[in-house]
Amino acid sequence: MISDDYLIECKLEPEEPRLQEPGSIPLLPSMVDVPPKGDTRDPRGINQHLKLEFSDILAEPSSFRSFDRVWTWSDIVFESSRLWCYRIISLLCAVPVSLFSGFLFACLGCLHIWCVMPCIQLCTMAMPPIRTLWASILDVVIAPLFASLGRCCSAIYLTVTQK
Predict the structure, then answer these.
(1) Greatest CA separation found in the chain?
(2) What is the sign, positive or negative, of the torsion defined by CA atoms of 108, 113, 119, 125?
(3) Quick check: 78 and 57 in contact, CB under 8 A?
(4) Which residues contact 37 (CB under 8 A, 6 or more apart)?
(5) How far apart are CA 86 and CA 93, in angstroms?
(6) Alpha carbons 8 and 4: distance in angstroms, whole number
(7) Which end of the chain has less Cβ packing within 10 Å, N or C?
(8) What pTM, to 2 d.p., does this model score?
(9) Exposed (0-12), middle (13-18) or buried (19+): which is 74, by Cβ within 10 Å?
């Protein structure tokens, strides 16, 4: 992620009125929808793959060119529709999804704290005697049984013939 030190802040309106185009309406700060700088909504960058621009989706080769105004307005319509569709969909879905996610993570946290960790601690405390018992069963019963079975079966030879 690029730190804020490398970002350049561009002015939206010229400082001097003589630099404005004639007949243009000066932009007021209240008219511009700019999010605050300190509001990082993806601080760990888990959605880097969703940073798409118009040129990532649509591109004209040099042999085909539409009118410049068509290209410019297509870019504006694409960006605006993407922004407003996302805002409308997130308005409809964000609250129910966050409510469900909060409920789900609360249940998982409660289960982990009150069920999983006590079981793990119980198993950790109970395992040394069980491990000793299991090693004794293996040494006394299972190992001699399979050793005898191996000796019995070691004299068996198979020959394969074709007819």
Answers:
(1) 106
(2) positive
(3) yes
(4) 4
(5) 10
(6) 8
(7) C
(8) 0.42
(9) middle
3-state helix, strand, coil in the chain (%, to 5): 60, 0, 40
- Residue 79's nearest CA partner among 37, 112, 117, 33 is 33
Measured distance CA(130)–CA(136) in Å, rounded: 10
What is the residue whose two structure tokens read 């118009």? 54
pLDDT in tens, 136-146: 999 999 999 99
Tens digit of pLDDT for each residue in 38-66? 667 777 777 777 777 766 677 777 777 77
Tokens representing residue 11 in the block: 């002015």
User: Two tokens at 18?
Assistant: 């003589």
Nearest 5 degrees, angle CA 86-CA 49-CA 78?
A: 40
